[in-house]
Design brief:
Strand order of the largest sheet: 1-2-3-4
Number of domains: 1
Largest sheet: 4 strands, antiparallel
Radius of gyration: 16 Å
Number of helices: 3
Helix content: 25-40%
Shape: globular
C-alpha cells in the first residue's frame, strides 16, 4: 500500500530534496487530510471521469430534522472515504453537534491508517461543514 497518492509520488520525484521518510505518520496524516478536503469539497457531477466523486447537493435534505440530515451526511462522508481513500480502514463518522456554532455541522472521523508494511495506526480527525458548504478536515 502506498503512503502517498500518485500525484504526490510524481511531484516528489521531480524535487531534489525529496529525501524524507514516507513512513512518517504525521506526513501520511497530512496527505490524507489534504486529499479528503479535495474529495469532500468537490461537488458530485463536477468531475467528468466519476459522476459520484464529491459531495451531493445538500438542499435535497430539506424538511428533515437535523439528526436525520446529519445521519445522511455522515453516511455520504463515510462512503466517500471508503471509495476514494484506500489508506483508511474501518472509518466511522459520528455527528457531534456544536452548541457554540449552530450553523456548521461537525463530525468525528475515527479510522485506522494503513501504512508501511501493513502497519495500522488509529487516528481521529474532525470534519466540519460550514454554513457556506465548505468542508474542513483537521486533526
Amino acid at each position: 500500500m502506498y503512503e502517498e497518492r500518485l500525484t504526490q509520488r510524481i511531484r516528489n520525484l521531480e524535487r531534489k530534496d525529496s529525501v524524507r521518510a514516507v513512513d512518517d505518520l504525521s506526513y501520511i496524516v497530512n496527505s490524507i487530510i489534504n486529499h479528503l478536503q479535495r474529495v469532500l469539497n468537490a461537488r458530485q457531477g463536477s468531475v467528468p471521469i466519476a459522476e459520484d466523486y464529491g459531495m451531493p447537493d445538500f438542499t435535497n435534505y430539506q424538511g428533515l430534522g437535523i439528526d436525520e440530515q446529519a445521519k445522511g451526511i455522515s453516511d455520504v462522508i463515510r462512503n466517500m472515504i471508503l471509495k476514494y481513500e484506500p489508506r483508511l480502514h474501518g472509518a466511522q463518522v459520528i455527528y457531534e453537534p456544536d452548541k457554540n456554532d449552530l450553523l456548521s455541522l461537525r463530525f468525528k472521523l475515527q479510522t485506522e491508517i494503513i501504512h508501511g508494511r501493513d502497519e495500522r495506526s488509529v487516528v481521529e480527525l474532525e470534519t466540519v461543514i460550514s454554513s457556506e458548504g465548505k468542508v474542513r478536515v483537521e486533526k
